[in-house]
Amino acid sequence: MLNRREVLRRISWLAGGAPLAIGAAPAVLGLIQGCSREAGLDWTPAFFSEEEARFITSYVDTLLPTTDTPGGLDVGVDRFIDKVMAATARREEGKPTPMQTGILEFDTNARTRFGKVFHELEADQRGQLFSEAEKSPRYQPAVWGTAVGEQPPIGFYRSLKSMALWGYLSSEEIGTQVLNYDPVPGEYNGDIPLSSVGGRAWSL
């Protein structure tokens, strides 16, 4: 099994594709630092229904499980997503948001395939759904926030994945204990081998 540092090395570039303002991440994460995972849903959603929140928690735990370093639930990524949605999503009376529609569709697919909604599935079944969803279009690399080339339509799975990675990589615990952290950086050098800094990307 890959350890957390190896996973981050492979996927951290995706975080730049988060669909919301990156500058909001530290402020929102500040509200949820120090939360630890317990069995079941141990927090009260501000945006999602309880069933939707269980989906988000299961999604985050599947994407970013605890290994030798903290997982997504250990740093409150599920609550982060809930708070971001509560602060930014536009609701229309009687009409679900795209995020809620995506959850419903993902759960419907899970029930069709395995007879249960996503949060009730075994780990290998969740993994199968993730492997299939990974075939969906990816975010194009971006320069200064602008995609290089035409950006394909990004579906629910990858949009939520991007938000989860954004929250995870922006958290204080990951930024200071897993990634390289220097609160007073010196000279910038954008062309050095990753091995020269311990094989870990910088958090700042």
The total beta strand count reads 2
- Spans of at least 5 consecutive residues whose pLDDT stays below 50 are 4-39
> Structural class, from helix and strand content?
mainly alpha
Strand portion:
under 5%
User: Mind telling me the C-alpha Rg?
Assistant: 17 Å
- Report the sheet with the most strands, covering strand number, pairing sense and barrel closure: 2 strands, antiparallel
SSE run: HHHHHHEEHH
Question: How many helices does DSSP assign?
Answer: 8
Distance between the termini: 27 Å
Mean pLDDT: 80
Strand order of the largest sheet: 1-2
Apparent shape: globular
Q: Approximately how much helix is present in the residues?
A: 40-55%
Secondary structure layout:
Elements: H1 4-11, H2 25-29, H3 50-63, H4 77-88, H5 98-114, H6 123-133, E1 142-143, E2 146-147, H7 156-170, H8 172-177
Antiparallel strand pairs: 1-2
Helix pairs in contact: 3-4, 4-7
Which key features would you list for this structure?
about 200 residues, about 0% strand, mainly alpha
Explain this structure to me?
This protein is an all-alpha fold and 204 residues long. It is built from eight helices and two strands; from the N terminus they run ααααααββαα. The chain has helices at residues 4-11, 25-29, 50-63, 77-88, 98-114, 123-133, 156-170, 172-177, and strands spanning 142-143, 146-147. A two-stranded antiparallel sheet has the order 1-2. α3 (50-63) packs across α4 (77-88). The longest helix has 17 residues, at 98-114.
